[in-house]
Amino acid sequence: MKGVVKYVIVISIICILCVFTLQLYLLRNTYKALSVGLYVNIDECFSTSVENELLKRVDRVHPPEGTIIVEPRQEKDSTSFQKDLYIGFNDFCERFHHPRNTDSLNKYFITELNGRNINNLKFRIRLLKTDTSYYRSPADFHNDTSFKKITFNEFKTHIVPVKLNLSEGIQAVIVNPYKIILTRMWLLLLASFFIIVFVIFCIAKLVTLLHRITAISRMRQDHTYGMIHDMNGPLANIVMASDDLENLPSVISDYDAKRDVEILEDESNHLIRISRQILTVAKLESKKLIMNKTSIGLQILFEEIKRKYISHQGKRPDIEIIKSNAYVLADKDYLIEILDNLIENSIKYSKDKVTIKLSSFSVGKYTEIRLLDNGIGIEEKKKERLFEKFERGVNAKEIEGHGIGLNYVYQLMKAMGGYVKINSEKEKYTEVILGFLCKK
To answer: For the chain, which has fewer Cβ within 10 Å, the N-terminal or C-terminal residue?
Structure first.
């Protein structure tokens, strides 16, 4: 469950980052689009304001009859704009003592901006000396892209030429345009804020719920393991009582009574072994199990295992040992438990005659112990999940078992730095392969 919580937390953090990134991307693109639109509107407003202010001055001029207003020069291949014809009016007005009025231009500019719903804009208007080698015609001013750089703090309109020789121009500099842009984005900003807060809130609730579920699961698991641990004492007492009963003259002389006592003793030992396995798995999962790995000779180990099963109650396995000179690094007690577990499985899931072959092979830096039996085999689709808790093969449902054994083997092999694999064919054989590091 801890792994699930960690996985959910990682996924949750990734989701938050994705939502946050997408919202930032949306806000950035919206800000950029509004910036471009605002720039175009302000640029057009300023150009129109300069034109209106100029025409107002022209209306106040009363020149002598026959006065000619000179038009600016144009490139042959340039596109002529009607407003470019007004450039000569500046020289005309100044000649007759009607110079440009900055205050009047500011008012015209503000009026144009208000007409396009652009309010409270901070700006300044400045007169510039222009490079006549770069600006050779009015069209060059319109086509100049150097002033389309929109920054967070300011942007500048196109230069509007005000001299017939194109040596001077006028320009508006917009200060802190972000204030107007963010004002227009307030609804989107508010929605983005609530979306992010809502996502974080939901994920926090989910993580809290998972932590609570984990705590409940751990409490139930600890309670279960505590009960199993407490069972070991009564079971040990039952085994001791069985030993005493087995030695009573009345039991020795009564075949049925002796057989019942043996069954009682065997089943009690079986329960003790299962409880120890469950407690060992619990220690493995909590990483509290200490392994005492030593170099173990496999030939001696195999013979020791074989002697143990010579007097096995019930189906007696025929164990064949392929001679081995290999050594492995493992905890001997747990290795014996693993082999006992696998042999018990072979006996349980085999037909009347049980044959088991124990052998070893060297595979790179690992030595493999292979246990091959003539059991009922495992279906192909079930192999991948056999090492999970309480998982059993479909063809083993009618045979007594809890699906703990192979998970126990898997956990112990993992703790010893080895691996376990299964090869099997239904109704023919099962081969369990245990991989251990070779002796150094």
So the answer is: C
